[in-house]
Design brief:
The structure is a single chain. The chain has 16 helices and 21 strands. By secondary structure, it is α+β, with helices and mostly antiparallel strands. The protein has a domain at about 290-515: Roll (Dipeptide-binding Protein, domain 3), CATH 3.10.105. The strands form five sheets. Strands 1, 7, 8, 9, 10, 11, 12, 16, 17, 18 and 19 form an eleven-stranded mixed β-sheet that branches. Strand 2 and strand 3 form a beta hairpin. The longest helix has 18 residues, at about 490-510. The chain is globular, with a radius of gyration of 23 Å.
Length: about 550
């Protein structure tokens, strides 16, 4: 279908003024209250997280937990609000057709930048830093987290220290959302270096954010300190400490005892919700989250290349019992990788049915025969694989044991090989060294449903691609649909195309969706400024606004 100028203009206006059409609706944990904010940063906040952040250069491959530190230390050109609106950060304004920042065809981009921003070392932030950042992302010698969208940028021109413009090789509707997650890095520090992958900066970053790098104790915590020269509102506390507590039972215990002020990342586990909401001096709420829990398969493994095997494993998993018995019914069953609050969510996908009978039939018909030990095999391939997750996540560990038993009943052997978070989410995950994992992933980019980075054939890091397709999934039809959806601005058409992608993913089952999270979040009474944002990957996205009510 040809794209009319009117459609493109309308879509771009919506992108520039109010965020992507169909932005995910907000869910507030606590309504922000600003009246009692201190005049100067006061006190500290300890955030308890279940994994150790290990990536401090925001352009390098990272996971959600890294965002907590990075979003406090760095800024992008724009941010996204809980209601999906794009708002300026390092940019002085969000480019739109009306203000001349975007051309009607979506090809010309012009950013005006703030003139009052300095890096944490005192050097001014300028358009040269933006140009350097965009070029570094595409440097073939640099280990970039994501190149989707950026590879279309051409002819970057620094107009002045506070103005930069470029053209896009093709229109790309999700690009503003991608820029939300693209943190700027300093040219004067990284530019002179030959190897930016091993730069000292990567372990002691310098950004423009509300907090400056303080110190890190490996295996224990990262401490950030207030940036007195921050250009925006805040910060309102002197120190922001991210404390790593991999064992979720210990994490909750330290929340109860007051050793941590906010329980983040894996939050309060559902089995502790009934008690948690009665705790004195705590504020506890259930908040829908964009994270989808799934059994993530490495599709390059020979046992998973048979569609019948993937279908059979899914049929043999009693996910409703997992939700009810382990997660106390709080999560919502899902057949899609998208959260159900997304404009792009497809509600018409086939519903999962737990059926060992179906699983056995599928495997029998596909020629997977039981051996003397009861485990199936075909053409010399034993139907056996390992499953991994983070050690200390007791609910996932219980789910693993339940799934292991269920699969054994239909002749599938699943072994459990859990690992510490730093190992689990290092190269084991990023380079697809696993057989399968249980993992929660945010597949949206802000409010946008582009999943090129997760499912495109050229986004497989283990095969030299740039992206996060660690399941090594490849489907030419999905590649085609993602490319088409990214190049048009008609939101209804994009919804249709992403609906088709969801249908194919549901049929192929490169991952086995279990549920969309409903997170039990908690913090101490008196801690203000906390605001849930379903369009971000981490709840501490606005830590600059946190303060203690005096």
């Amino acid at each position: 279908m040809p794209i009319t100028n009117m459609n493109r203009r309308k879509a771009l206006t919506m992108l520039g003024l109010t965020g992507a059409a169909g932005a995910i609706a907000p869910n507030l944990l606590v309504s922000p209250a600003w009246a009692a904010r201190p005049d100067t940063p006061t006190g500290q906040i300890v955030v308890g997280i279940s994994q150790e952040p290990t990536v401090f250069n925001p352009l390098m491959p990272r996971i959600e937990v890294d965002d907590g530190v990075q979003l406090s230390v760095f800024d992008g050109l724009v941010r996204i609000s809980p209601d999906g609106e794009f708002i300026p950060a390092l940019a002085a304004e969000v480019p739109t057709i009306e203000n001349g920042g975007l051309s009607e065809d979506g090809l010309s981009w012009h950013f005006k930048l703030r003139d009052d921003v300095t890096w944490h070392d005192g050097e001014p932030f300028t358009a040269e830093d933006v140009k350097f950042t965009l070029e570094l992302i595409m440097d073939p010698n640099f280990r970039s987290w994501r190149t989707t969208g950026h590879e279309l940028v051409r002819d970057i021109e620094v107009v002045s220290p506070t103005e930069i413009k470029w053209r896009m090789e093709e229109p790309f509707a999700p690009y503003m959302s991608i820029l939300v997650e693209t943190m700027m890095v300093p040219k004067h520090i990284l530019g002179p270096l030959e190897d930016r992958n091993e730069a000292p900066f990567n372990q002691a970053p310098i950004g423009t954010g509300a907090f400056k790098w303080g110190s890190r104790k490996a295996g224990d915590h990262v401490e950030l300190v207030a940036n007195p020269d921050y250009f925006g509102e805040g910060p309102f506390v002197e120190r922001l400490i991210f404390k790593y507590i991999p064992d979720l039972t210990v994490l909750y215990t330290q929340f109860k005892s007051g050793d941590i002020d906010i329980i983040s990342n894996q939050y309060i586990t559902p089995d502790n919700y009934a008690e948690a909401k009665t705790l004195a001096g705590k504020e506890v709420s259930v908040v829908p989250a964009p994270t989808v829990e799934s059994v993530f398969l490495n599709n390059e493994k020979p046992q998973f290349q048979d569609s019948a095997v993937r279908q059979a494993i899914y049929a043999a998993i009693d996910k409703q019992t997992i939700i009810d018995a382990l997660y106390y019914g709080l999560p919502t069953p899902s057949e899609s990788y998208l959260p159900q609050q997304s404009y792009y969510y497809n509600p018409d996908l086939p519903q999962h049915e737990y059926s060992p009978e179906t699983a056995n039939k599928l495997l029998d018909e596909a020629g997977w025969e039981r051996g003397a030990d009861g485990i199936r095999a075909k053409d010399g391939v034993r139907l056996s694989f390992s499953n991994s997750t983070t050690s200390g996540n007791h609910l996932r560990e219980q789910a693993q044991q339940f799934i292991q038993q269920s699969l054994g009943e239909v002749g599938i052997e699943m072994t459990i090989e859990n690992k510490p978070p730093a190992v689990m989410w290092g190269e084991y995950w990023t380079q697809s060294q696993f057989d399968s994992v249980i993992v929660g992933i945010v597949f949206t980019t802000g409010a946008d449903a582009d999943v090129t980075v997760r499912f495109a054939s050229d986004a497989i890091p283990a095969q030299g691609g740039r992206g996060s397709n660690t399941g090594q999934y490849q489907n030419p039809e999905v590649d085609k649909l993602l490319e088409e959806a990214g190049r048009i601005f008609d939101q209804a058409k994009r919804k249709e195309l992403y609906g088709q992608v969801q249908e194919i993913i549901r049929e192929d089952l490169p991952l086995l969706p279990l549920f969309q999270y409903a997170t039990v979040r908690g913090h101490k009474e008196g801690l203000k400024g906390i605001e849930a944002n379903i369009n971000t990957r981490i709840d501490t996205w606005n830590a600059a606004q946190y303060y203690w009510d005096q």
